[in-house]
Every structure is written in C-alpha cells, then in structure tokens.
Design a protein that fits this description.
The chain has 428 residues and is of the alpha/beta class. The protein has helices spanning 55-65, 96-99, 109-119, 134-145, 162-168, 188-194, 217-230, 271-274, 295-305, 310-345, 374-385, 411-422, and strands spanning 2-4, 7-10, 30-33, 70-71, 128-131, 151-156, 172-177, 179-180, 184-185, 199-205, 233-237, 264-270, 283-289, 352-353, 361-365, 387-388, 390-391, 402-406. The relative contact order is 0.15.
Length: 428
C-alpha cells in the first residue's frame, strides 16, 4: 500500500460485484482512505461507493501474471499491433506554433477548420468547440444543460462510462433498454415514458458501442421528434462513425446530414478514434441546427478550463489528413477478424454473432444454460482458457446470453482466443 497524502493506493481488498458491472479500467489503481486517518473523513457522493477493484479485475490481473493470457477485449489502437506507418503528423507536436500559445476558448481556428473539412456536411469552424476528450465534452454539455439532480437518458446497450460522467456532474444517467428484433432497436415509447420533469437530454452513440449499429432513419426521425416534443437536447457520439463494416442502406451515417432537426443536436467526436490517436488528447463538439444558440454559454464554460493543449491543436490538420489511411488499416483488421469468426462459427451452430454495421466490437450470442449470466460465463472462460472477453452486462445489454469481443485484436491472437473459448460454450 503506497501513501498518497491522506489516501492510499491499494489493490489488496476484495469487493463484491456491483450489479455484475466491471470497473472502467481493468488494470487501474484506486484510492481508499489511508490507515490512521479519521473514520469520519469522506469524499463527495458523486463518486462510486467503492473505489476498489472488482473481483473480475483482480482475477484478470492474476491470470495475466501467470502468462499464456489472451486478451480479446483490447480497444487501444496503439496496442493492437497495427503498423500505421505514417509519421508526417509527428513534427507538429513540437512545432513553432506550440511555442507561441494563443488562448482561444473555442480552440484554434486552424484546428477547427480542419475538423470542419473532415466532417464536411456544411459544418463551419464556428460550429465547433474543442475539448481535451469526448469525456470532457460530455462533462461540459452536462454542465451546460443540467442542474444538479437533473437527468439524461441513455439507451442501452451502451458503453459503461455515462453513469460515472453524469454522477460527477451531480446528475443521473438513466438507462433505457432497447429491444431486440433482428437488431437492437431504440424503444421510443420507453424513452418517452422515462422522461420526467428533470430530464434534460438523450445521449446516443452512432454507431452504437458495442452493437455496432447505426441509427436507422426511422429511429432518427422518432428520436428527434421526441426531443423536440419534450424540449430535450440530443447528444450524438459519433467517434466510430468512420468505421463502417457491414453498412445498411437505412442507416444514418451521421447526424450532420440533418440540417433541419427539430431539436438541438450536439455531435461529439475526437482524434482518439477518428485518427487512431488516443494519446493526442483532442475531442470536439459540433453545435448543429438549433444547438448553435448555445455557443456563447458553452464558450464561457470552455473559457474556465482552457484544457486543450497547443500541441494537440497544432497536430490536428496533419492527423486528419493521415486519418483515412490509418482508419483503412483498422477496417481491414476488423473485417479479417469477422471473417475468421464466421468461419469458426460454422462448426458451432449453437452460437452466432450479431451484424456489425460499424465500430470495433462484435457481439457473440450464446445459449444461456450452465452459466446463467454473462459475467459467470466470462469468469469461467477466463479461468478455463486464460482468455478474456467482455460479458454483455459490461455494456448493459438488457438480457443474458452475450459476450463482446474486440475486432482490433491481432488476428493470430483473435483466432487462437476464439478456438479456446468456442468449444467451452455449451450447446443449448
């Protein structure tokens, strides 16, 4: 245990699972009260009740340390073995421009112009505000739109980050389950029923993570109509929008195609996914349609932080110029892994995978037999095969019977990991 002021960093204690959810970072360290300090010492209730690692993460680390460990959940493009090759953007990280800092709460005009060109669709630099990440973009939008105690709605399945981001702003993220009919479909009546007097916005990811589904045109129409009816803002996270794998003609490729949406639309993205540069911390918000009237108060918020680094802004144009080639390599990797999965599933007719319209993940569907829940199944696979997969409950899938795999995984590891786990998933 290492002292850190009035706190200690520890990974020794075990904790019970909270609703079957994993911690956000499987290898993270957490702060707990240090021995010898008053028991009355407390931290904000905006943080989770327990800041200790879950049982699952402790088992992952223990298994990793024993060797022969295969990780089919890797989602960091700098850790998945792809040689992107390009280096032209790197000198901009130490360019002359960085040495002469000019504060602008919206971000540098050159960076915003490059992002506007990337999106096209009529987006202008003045429609864009830069952030240090999409997570920060969410926090600013929650500050902008909500008072403490307000709520935002998040259709699930979805990435398990919104609950914490909302809580840290003193608001609540309410999960509203989608329903499955050949694909995960937004339950518009359920979303409307979940709207209350303190609901301020709906958050959607397009394409969804982990289902990979783009919003359908009908879902988009119904969603924007609901937001207009209930006076809600619509936050659309499009970090995976450039990674179409099995496209559908009915898909909404980007919210920016709708110039006349009847509600305020905020589109979020960033270099982490668009240019495969998570280490270059830069995200952005596009204020679209009726959202443009929020530019002044959002600029005020940004001016209190000025969090975007000059080097990240300086590299934006060159990074976006190199981005199509980099994304192409990721798409090739994802399609190669999908083909390998399809070939192996031919020998396991009791298993199937869901279509992947876009993104980096694939959902594997399994019979619900011996392992009553997905977490138990993932734990068993980890112990028996030394292979890590995400249980569907990590993404709040509304029912059991699903495992989630990353398509970024190196092909040889992906194939070996699949070979290990598929024979361990029982027939119904």
């Amino acid at each position: 245990m290492l002292p850190y002021g009035q706190w200690a960093v520890s990974r020794e204690s075990t904790v019970k699972l909270s609703a079957g959810r994993l911690d956000h970072g499987l290898s993270s360290w957490y702060l707990i009260p240090a021995p010898g300090y008053p028991a009355s010492m407390r931290i904000s209730n905006r943080l989770p009740e327990s800041l200790l690692p879950t049982v699952f993460s402790k088992l992952v680390e223990a298994r990793r340390g024993r060797g022969d460990f295969l990780d089919l959940t890797v989602s960091n493009p700098t850790k998945c073995g792809i040689d992107f090759g390009d280096t032209a953007w790197r000198p901009f990280l130490a360019s002359e421009e960085v040495l002469h800092y000019q504060a602008d709460p919206c971000g540098s005009l050159a960076a915003r112009a490059a992002i506007a060109a990337h999106h096209d669709c009529g987006v202008l630099p003045e429609d864009i505000l830069l952030t240090a990440s999409t997570s920060e973009a969410y926090s600013w939008l929650f500050k902008l739109l909500c008072d403490p105690g307000d709520q935002v709605l998040v259709p699930s399945p979805s990435y398990p980050l919104f609950e914490h981001l909302a809580s840290l702003e003193g608001i609540e993220a309410i999960n509203v389950s989608a329903y499955f009919h050949e694909r995960w479909c937004l339950d518009i009546p359920a979303l409307e029923s979940a709207c209350g007097p303190r609901t301020r916005a709906i958050v959607v990811v397009n394409p969804n993570n982990p289902s990979g589904q783009f919003l359908s045109k009908g879902e988009w129409r119904d969603l924007t109509t609901l937001c207009a009816k209930r006076d809600l803002a619509l936050l659309v996270d499009e970090v995976f929008a450039d990674f179409a794998l099995e496209p559908n003609s009915d898909s909404v490729a980007t919210a920016l195609l709708d110039r006349e949406a009847p509600c305020p639309v905020f589109v979020l993205s960033g270099l982490s996914k668009v240019a495969l540069l998570p280490q270059v911390k830069l995200g952005w918000i596009v204020l679209w349609g009726k959202a443009k009237v929020y530019l002044e108060p959002l600029t005020f918020l940004a001016d209190q932080y000025l969090s975007v680094s000059a080097s990240a802004q300086a590299v934006t144009a060159a990074a976006l110029l190199a981005a199509p080639s980099r994304r192409g390599k990721v798409v090739d990797r994802a399609l190669e892994n999908l083909m390998a999965l399809d070939r192996l599933l031919m020998g396991h007719p009791h298993l199937s995978r869901l279509p992947v319209e876009g993104g980096w993940s694939v959902i594997l569907r399994r019979p619900v037999v011996n392992d009553a829940d997905d977490l138990a199944c993932a734990l068993r696979l980890l112990e028996e095969t030394a292979t890590l997969v995400h249980p569907g409950s990590f993404f709040d899938l509304p029912k059991e019977g699903y495992l989630v795999l990353s398509l970024l995984t190196a092909p040889e590891i992906f194939h070996e990991g699949l070979w290990r786990i598929l024979s361990r998933l029982p027939v119904d």
